[in-house]
Design goal:
Elements lengths: L1 H7 L4 E6 L6 H11 L7 E5 L10 E4 L8 H8 L6 E4 L5 H12 L3 E6 L4 H10 L4 H7 E13 L5 E4 L2 H6 L9 E4 L11 E12 L2 H8 L4 H10 L5 H11 L4 H7 L9
Parallel strand pairs: 1-5, 1-6, 2-3, 2-4, 4-5
Antiparallel strand pairs: 6-9, 7-8
Length: about 260
């Protein structure tokens, strides 16, 4: 959280949130905007649709029928001298190019992309035609996110992990590890869960990461450097939450959190 806060308190650059539909990206963006001082700067959003109304922030709803697309709206927004621009989503090449350009010309740009992990956002933008040197200069960081349910505190019980769960969690087969089992009761309407929490992975693009990107580094090289700066995968964060009893292995399987081998 501290490293993420450092990203959006910078005066300019592109900060991205990634994840599938329903992973809480927009809610995290709104929480980010609420931490920024709307009175001290001009904050403008382009959204489809506006989901929460925030005091002191200029929020614009995209309307394709009238020609107000993300790209067209962004073209107008940058003329309004904004300090912070929030784009609901980068959907096409034109919007991506304009978002990077805005980040390079003194604006802080916050937006989302549909990719499976944080590093995937880099290659998605490269596939959209963004030059590597422009992306390296403008990108400040990428936060990947998933939402999982919390076990009900009234009916959740500890039990020994199965062999399959131990293997998935990267533990020894003979280890006696306790995990939470969701049962279901009147408090959680029989679901076994009540409330949600987010799993995250954060990649910060410092000067070393930027140089690797310009040099054409592949995903493995970028992740190796990210590990040196303290990066940990969605899987690692998910396992930590299971061990804390904050969620269940079944929830990780439900949202498609893959094992550490996928990040090797």
């Amino acid at each position: 959280l501290q490293r993420y806060r450092q990203l959006f308190h910078q005066p300019n650059g592109l900060v991205l949130l990634t994840g599938p539909t329903g992973s809480g990206k927009t809610t995290t963006l709104y929480a980010t905007l609420q931490e920024l001082d709307a009175a001290a700067g001009n904050i403008i959003t382009l959204e489809d649709p506006v989901e929460y109304k925030l005091a002191g922030i200029n929020q614009v709803a995209v309307n394709r029928r009238s020609g107000l697309t993300f790209a067209a709206g962004l073209r107008s927004v940058v003329r309004q001298d904004p300090d912070v621009i929030m784009l609901g989503e980068i959907r096409d090449e034109e919007t991506a190019a304009m978002a990077v350009h805005a980040a390079l010309t003194g604006h802080l740009v916050l937006s989302t992309l549909h990719t499976n992990d944080a590093i995937g956002a880099v290659y998605r933008l490269l596939d959209m035609g963004i030059a590597d040197y422009l992306l390296a200069a403008g990108l400040r960081g990428v936060l990947a996110q998933r939402l999982v349910r919390r076990p009900c505190r009234h009916c959740g019980e500890r039990r020994l992990a199965t062999a399959a769960e131990l293997q998935y969690l990267g533990r020894r087969a003979d280890e006696s590890l306790q995990v939470v089992q969701a049962h279901g009761c009147e408090h959680c309407h029989g679901t076994g869960y009540r409330g949600r929490l987010a799993l995250h992975e954060l990649v910060v693009f410092d000067k070393r990461m930027q140089q690797l990107l310009v040099n054409g580094a592949d995903e493995a090289e970028l992740l190796q450097e990210a590990r040196k700066q303290g990066w940990r995968s969605l899987y690692a964060d998910a396992v930590a939450k299971v061990l804390q009893g904050a969620t269940t292995v079944e929830e990780l399987w439900r949202v498609g959190i893959t094992g550490e081998a996928a990040y090797a």
